[in-house]
Design brief:
There is one protein chain. The chain is mostly beta strands. The protein has one domain: Fumarylacetoacetase-like, C-terminal domain (Fumarylacetoacetate hydrolase, domain 2). It has four helices and 18 strands. The strands form five sheets. The chain has a five-stranded mixed β-sheet, with helices on one face. Strands 7-18-17-14-15 form a five-stranded mixed β-sheet, with no helix packed on it. It starts with a strand and ends with a strand.
């Protein structure tokens, strides 16, 4: 299944993307895509619904973040083999963790506002893992049982805040709009091997030499290991999002570095999970 949320900001409705690419309304069956609706038994119920019997949504409505009520966004840093080198950082011996604020959540195609005073706004396409079954001290061998689905995440980063202002990375990671999520939440039955997914990101149609182009098999720490590892430090709740790290090709890693400015177009995609597009806008524009 491909689940999504559509409608104006703050008033999104639950939906399903059918095989023909049409949005079907799920409001009669579930309050939203989040919380208890992500539990395994709830997903089984939704999977049993015939999409053809659901109301079809006309036009091209705005898409909201594909998960509602996200409790926390847990991010993994430096998790692709060549990314630490381009960032001039050492390869981690254990997963590097940091948190993004939930106020950073945005729809997959919402405008991306460059923060006031920002000078080095950067891109990071990542596989997002959404937790369904909650637990802590999860074993790696059973980690897959806790996944509600996968989605595209752009871990937008302001490098000057992250690396030049002292303290933790969170300053440059949690700005409003810095976590576009979606377009949809793709359930595990449609992603048989998440560790084989291709990731890519273009800026201004930079397609023939994509800034980011990689495969999830290049992760240092795989998805089951990340779930088990993170759950040793905090409980994982239904709707929590794990951003599993970005491959090389970020703006910081270019020679010389390249950063975003107003009126640019980003397009980030992952095989089978879809793609998202943002237009950058200046502060208060």
């Amino acid at each position: 299944m491909k689940l999504l949320r559509y409608g104006p900001k703050g008033r999104e409705r639950p939906g399903l993307l059918d095989r023909s690419g049409e949005i079907r309304d799920l409001s009669a069956h579930v309050r939203d895509i989040g919380g208890v609706s992500l539990l395994p038994e709830a997903l089984v119920t939704l999977r049993g619904i015939d999409p053809a019997r659901l109301p079809c949504i006309s036009g091209m409505p705005r898409l909201g973040p594909c998960v509602a009520g996200v409790g926390k966004i847990i991010c993994v840093g430096l998790n692709y083999r060549d990314h630490p080198a381009e960032s001039k950082m050492i390869v981690p011996s254990e997963p590097v963790l940091f948190l993004k604020s939930t106020s950073a959540l945005a729809g997959p195609n919402d405008d991306l506002q460059i923060p006031r005073g920002a000078e080095k706004t950067d891109w990071e396409v990542e596989i997002g893992v959404v937790i369904g079954k909650p637990d802590k001290y999860i074993e790696e061998k059973s980690a897959a049982e806790h996944i509600a689905g996968f989605c595209v995440v752009n871990d937008v980063s302001e490098r000057s805040y992250q690396l030049e202002r002292g303290g933790q990375w969170d300053k440059g990671k949690g700005c409003d709009g810095f976590a576009p999520l979606g377009p949809g939440l793709v359930t595990p039955d449609e992603v048989p091997d998440p560790q084989s997914l291709d990731l890519w990101l273009d800026v201004d149609g930079h397609r023939y030499h994509r800034y980011q182009s990689a495969n999830a098999r290049d992760m240092i720490f795989g998805i089951p290991h990340l779930i088990a590892y993170i759950s040793q430090f905090m409980s994982l709740q239904s709707g929590d999002v794990i951003a599993t790290g970005t491959p090389p090709g970020v703006g910081l890693g270019q020679n010389p570095p390249i950063y975003l400015r107003a009126d640019q177009a980003l397009c980030a995609g992952i095989t089978g999970l879809g793609f998202q597009q943002q237009r950058t806008v200046a502060w208060n524009s």
